[in-house]
Amino acid sequence: MTRYSPTEEPRVKQKGCKTDLSDMEQLVLDKHNEYRARHQDTPPLCYAEITGDDVEFMAQEWADHVGETGKFKHTPNPKVYGENMAWSSFRGEDPDPAPFYTSGMERWYSEIRNWDFNLSKGSMTSHFTQIVWQSSTMLNCGFSTSETLRRAYVVCQYWPKGNWGRQSEYAVKVRPPLGFVREGKLTKGGG
After folding, report:
1. With contact defined as beta carbons under 8 Å apart, do 18 and 108 qualify?
2. Burial of 171 (0-12, 13-18, 19+ CB in 10 A)
3. Which one of 7, 10, 66, 159 has the lowest number of neighbouring Cβ atoms within 10 Å?
4. How far is CA 96 from CA 25, 50, 59, in A?
5. pLDDT tens digits for the chain (191 residues)?
6. What is the pTM of this model?
7. Which residues, listed in sequence order, are joined to residue 146 by a DSSP beta bridge?
8. Would you say 6 and 69 are in contact if contact means Cβ atoms under 8 Å apart?
């Protein structure tokens, strides 16, 4: 396993999207795309190879680093990709990653309740906005545990990164739910 160095810059290159996904990768991709499909003009993501055309993802490396150190913080150099992280406690040994991925994604997307689509802004919504950021096309995730702390960690990275640019970009990149009407009313298909 390659160790992550906090002083290392994200590595830029890439092949593209994986076609032969594991069950866990498919679960993560499907859930992200389910959320994205709820929004106007927001294309689905693909699950990226670790090394692709434009970026080398480090989600598993970083999840392992967080699990080993117990320090729950974002990669120090997230210049290339966006990143969402979550942690949860667990009991027993060797937990199944699926419920932790699902729970993390549900918590991230639930921030939609704090987003004002009329004003294109919100408080505590960066996880949500990254999931639905219109121009993000690729996703790669990692999972790790800390036996000492009894915590499970989920790290998802997105390319191109979201939550970047002027406030005016949010109106373009964070598309309203299907059926949204500018006066603030949701019609059939919204929510």
Report:
1. no
2. middle
3. 7
4. 13, 22, 18
5. 444 344 444 443 335 899 899 999 999 999 999 999 999 999 999 999 877 656 788 999 999 999 999 999 999 866 778 999 999 999 888 789 999 999 999 999 999 999 999 999 999 999 999 999 999 999 999 999 998 999 999 999 999 999 877 888 999 999 999 988 766 445 444 44
6. 0.85
7. 151
8. no
Contacts by residues 123-127 (CB-CB < 8 Å, ≥ 24 positions apart)? 126/163, 127/84
CA distance 39 to 131: 11
Backbone angles phi, psi at 75, to 5 degrees: -55, 140
Q: What count of residues does the chain have?
A: 191
DSSP string, 21-52: --HHHHHHHHHHHHHHTTBTT-PPPEEBPSB-
Half-sphere exposure (CA, 13 Å, Cβ side) for 68? 8
Nearest of 191, 158, 161 to residue 45 by alpha carbon: 158
Name the 3-class secondary structure at 131. helix
CA distance 138 to 44: 9
